[in-house]
Amino acid sequence: MIEDIETIDEFLTRHADGVEEAVRKAAAQEIMPRWRRLAAHEVDQKAGPHDLVTDADRQAEQYLTEALADLLPGSVVVGEEAVHANPASYEAIRGEAPVWIVDPVDGTRQFVQGDPGFCTLVALAHHGVLRASWTYAPALDQLATAVRDQGAFLNGERLLAGPPEPGRDLDVATSHPDYTTDEQKRALLALRTPGVAPRPCGSAGLEYLAVARGESDATAFSWEAAWDHAAGLLLVEEAGGTHLTRTGEPFRITGGNELPFTAARDAATARRVVALLSGEGA
């Protein structure tokens, strides 16, 4: 527990380990025991066959909602499954209280298939500014963390994205067509050009981690749901990368962004991807 007078920076200095412990426990107690052991009745569809939810999602989010609110009194939690049940709860991202943004199982489709490419995403924001994030892939034994102005780390090792290798095609993870409008499809098709190698994305959180690690060059995503993006955007920023919308402005977790947008390992790559998405050519 913390005192009301404690600032976010002070909270993170004193309690970041507690957040990490909560994330690890949620995975150990609610997610991993169900991985590759899901029964049919533990899997449901939300918007369609590519939008799945499982008992692991629901129970892990419940665990994190209670644990994170206890760690930071006065904070609120915006979780994917809670917003699905009550869309109005998303508005807390724009409120005055510190907000935890939670995706309990990012990459639920992979989780259901028994693939290890899923993760738990937690970010802490205040007044629309991302302050810290945790990206935990339990099946891969990877924990990435970021605190604003303090760097990004994977299993304790500093992450530095760096620029892409000159002369190599850019590896760009893109939105699944099911989640794009006709206009967004046309924008994403512009990435099919010499020097760029677009591909369908997996878990958004792990795609952001790949950019922060310098293993992938950029993303091009067409949806705004903060739980998919918040943790990864800060991770990329703190690894030296950047993110831009088609207006040339950084992505805002509070919404109202011009889509698709990109997160990239360096500013030059971000500008190149945005130019293509905006129909301005390479």
TrEMBL record:
It is an enzyme of class 3 (hydrolase). Its EC number is 3.1.3.25. Keywords: Magnesium, Metal-binding. It comes from the Bacteria. Pfam families: Inositol_P. It catalyses: a myo-inositol phosphate + H2O = myo-inositol + phosphate. InterPro entries: Inositol_monophosphatase-like, Inositol_monophosphatase_CS. PROSITE patterns: IMP_2. Transmembrane segments: none annotated. PANTHER family: INOSITOL MONOPHOSPHATASE, INOSITOL-1-MONOPHOSPHATASE-RELATED. This is inositol-phosphate phosphatase. It comes from Streptomyces viridiviolaceus.
